[in-house]
């Protein structure tokens, strides 16, 4: 991680938790201690966004796990950036592989969602990553560059400070298989070079690119040592007290 990029950790709770379990998570996050030089954001189910925002310390960000591409309307089951902001949350995760592969969201739709969320004033964690068969077929770069382009084309130039890109190889999410630090760094380095070539050197240098895919308290420090890995997006491990070690991985 370059010193000018603040270490970033996202805890994506996915479709987990009730109030009792969430209270336990809030308790261990509040107790910490958390690295003051790291930025922490928790991704929360929609029905608990308000509850969590009210109970977590203000120093910890709260993210929705999805939102739609317009402000309001006849879109049953969706939430808008305006609603997320209204309850005090400031982040949204978009394009997670589960949205892409379970719910069929396209690159184009994810790009539109990213654009609307940024325009409405949210900060965005857009996710990209290849499936196992795509990696084995040598298509990792083709896939992740294509996903990234659909997002980057929709990012207003003045909103890059509100973007944290998450690279999550689909084959490593929840499987216990983690890309080695070297595998992850190789892709992160290529993503950053793609930003140099297709956006600007300034954006490439300042934009944080975080890694997701079976990040644990055991492997987080080795990942954090890599030059182009600026943090992590953590799933199941973010529900457990050991998550503190992941937040503090760059200390």
TrEMBL record:
<dbReference type="GO" id="GO:0006096">
    <property type="term" value="P:glycolytic process"/>
</dbReference>
<dbReference type="InterPro" id="IPR035990">
    <property type="entry name" value="TIM_sf"/>
</dbReference>
<keyword id="KW-0389">IgE-binding protein</keyword>
<keyword id="KW-0413">Isomerase</keyword>
<dbReference type="GO" id="GO:0019563">
    <property type="term" value="P:glycerol catabolic process"/>
</dbReference>
<protein>
    <recommendedName>
        <fullName>Triosephosphate isomerase</fullName>
        <ecNumber>5.3.1.1</ecNumber>
    </recommendedName>
</protein>
<dbReference type="GO" id="GO:0005829">
    <property type="term" value="C:cytosol"/>
</dbReference>
<comment type="pathway">
    <text>Carbohydrate biosynthesis; gluconeogenesis.</text>
</comment>
<keyword id="KW-0324">Glycolysis</keyword>
<comment type="subunit">
    <text>Homodimer.</text>
</comment>
<dbReference type="Pfam" id="PF00121">
    <property type="entry name" value="TIM"/>
</dbReference>
<dbReference type="InterPro" id="IPR022896">
    <property type="entry name" value="TrioseP_Isoase_bac/euk"/>
</dbReference>
<comment type="similarity">
    <text>Belongs to the triosephosphate isomerase family.</text>
</comment>
<dbReference type="GO" id="GO:0006094">
    <property type="term" value="P:gluconeogenesis"/>
</dbReference>
<keyword id="KW-0963">Cytoplasm</keyword>
<dbReference type="GO" id="GO:0004807">
    <property type="term" value="F:triose-phosphate isomerase activity"/>
</dbReference>
<dbReference type="InterPro" id="IPR000652">
    <property type="entry name" value="Triosephosphate_isomerase"/>
</dbReference>
<comment type="pathway">
    <text>Carbohydrate degradation; glycolysis; D-glyceraldehyde 3-phosphate from glycerone phosphate: step 1/1.</text>
</comment>
<dbReference type="InterPro" id="IPR013785">
    <property type="entry name" value="Aldolase_TIM"/>
</dbReference>
<dbReference type="GO" id="GO:0019863">
    <property type="term" value="F:IgE binding"/>
</dbReference>
<dbReference type="InterPro" id="IPR020861">
    <property type="entry name" value="Triosephosphate_isomerase_AS"/>
</dbReference>
<keyword id="KW-0312">Gluconeogenesis</keyword>
<dbReference type="GO" id="GO:0046166">
    <property type="term" value="P:glyceraldehyde-3-phosphate biosynthetic process"/>
</dbReference>
